[in-house]
Amino acid sequence: MKLTEHYLQLRDSLGNTVENEDFTITIDELADILCCTPRYTKKIMKEMHNQNWINWKVAYGRGKRPTLTFLKNKGEVLFEVAKSHIRSGRYKEGLQTISSVGPPYQQLLNDWLVNQFGYIEESHQDEQLDILRYPFYYSIVHLDPAHINSIHENHLVDHIFDTLLVYNLQTKSVEPHLAHHYESSEDGMKWRFYLRKGVYFHHGRELTANDIVQSFQRLKETAFHNKSMIRNIRSVDVVKTWMVEFTLFKPDYLFPHALCHKQLSIIPLEIYQNAREGFTKLPTGTGPFKITKHDESMIRLDAHQHYFKGRPHLDRVEIITLADLDQTTKRDFTDYFSHDVSEKNSPMYWEEVQQPEEGATYITFNLFKGGPHQSIKVREAINYAIDKDALCDFLGGKHIFPADSQLINETDKTYVNQYNPDKSKELLHEAGYSGETLTLYATQLRKNASVRKEAFWIKEQCEKVGIMVDVHVVPINDLLREQTRKKADMIIGGVAFGNDIVYSFYRYLQMPASFVKNLMGKELGSVIESQLMKVVQEPDMDRQMGYLLELERMIKGDFAIIHLYHRSHAINVNSNSQLQGVSLEGFGRVNYKDLWFK
């Protein structure tokens, strides 16, 4: 990069020169411009000549001056430098380099960059590698399963780690995974798991029952937000090298479902203890891919050669981090990869594969806190003040649609747009509302990943009917702290359900980060607790779902929650490629393990 700076310094200082025109200049004059010694200046000029940026001819003899010819303009040089950065994996530096030279060269780089993503065949040390490379627009925070809090983090963890059991979406049942068989006592208090032999962690050690015990002990001892998932576990004990037994405090027929959850993945404790904070960047699991690089430029996953369910077809996946770009560069570049690509003559024409996502974005009310929102009429008035159809249009509604439940089929049965500002004003009058300000806290997963837009839109709609709203956008980890949460009158957040709908529904009502159970007040909270106890003690899945829907209807009936919208996920597959094995997981992400190319 220093050579580039020297070149730009020369061009700026010798502003009257144009490309391909010779002129004479001495080394001493160049040294003054570059603020270097004459000896180092000669080295610089030779390097620029070798790069074909300039033509540098040294003339020998008294009074003869060297001849300098600029062969490339600033844009051409920066374009080459940007490509060099990108080829070396320094994507951020490459895009920042080109951002200063204007749209023509930015477009040239975008056109060139298109061919650097997608399916790539590359040779590394005489080995031919099948690589999937794609851009992603924020940095991954956590890859330690215990601390994941976004869909994309969950997706990557799913490829790095394994759980004792997995949920099969096709059969809608829990199946063995790291365990090849499991059984429970008649009273549902003891659960025994028989482990597969020949399962290896990425660093080469074979998994045993000790790893199961240590993984769950770590969750008990670490700052794990979803401790409700493991609170009912009395003990985890090694029976034999390949056999482990869980003893519960109370019967729980959702326990096998919990063990499918990625936050309960099995880790090698010795690697975690050695790495500590580093484990969240470079974790080690048993999954089909292992992390071999994770820095500000990329996450690289290489195939786990000895994966117990078969080696992936891909050799490598590279996720290029393109966070913190200026918006112009980002918008131009993402046009090639957005969910809305429709031009068949685009450099990469994509066919859309779409999957609706169970779960919803919603508002909950803090019934532990005093204020106007303690009145059901005020909460109902806020419901009537929100035009959900208009909200979806405002957010760019192609993949967003109104919600009346966490479940899409329930929304289909019951949704009617209840927007009625006159009714809202009438209810406020009946409640005796006199203009007090309500605080609305909006959850933020990370920079540029929040419900800020929704929150300020809702503030505007509420103020049209006379409800004063003060919006705060707060990182979700801060909002999980009681001293922060108790300041909120309302919280707007969302949840995405996984494949296991019943357990996802149960967790949504249970876990702190959904802001339901921990906001519902003592009276409603005890009802929720009682109903959730019925769910876990009921072995029949249909009855479990019945209890959950009954509970949701009761919370909705009190207007303690207002559902806003559902999402659907879409990926776009290049119709001209020979990509095979494309399937979407529960969170609308592609399963890398099954991808292959003809």
TrEMBL record:
Note whether DNA-binding occurs among the keywords: yes
Source species, domain of life: Bacteria
Q: Where is the Transcriptional regulator SgrR N-terminal HTH domain?
A: 3-117
Question: What residue stretches are annotated with the Solute-binding protein family domain?
Answer: 174-507
Say yes or no: keyword Methyltransferase present: no
Keywords of the record, alphabetical order, are: DNA-binding
Q: Which Gene3D superfamilies match?
A: Dipeptide-binding Protein, Domain 3 (3.10.105.10), Periplasmic binding protein-like II (3.40.190.10)
Quote the protein name from its UniProt record.
Answer: MarR-like DNA-binding transcriptional regulator SgrR of sgrS sRNA
Q: What does the record give as the organism's lineage?
A: Bacteria, Bacillati, Bacillota, Bacilli, Bacillales
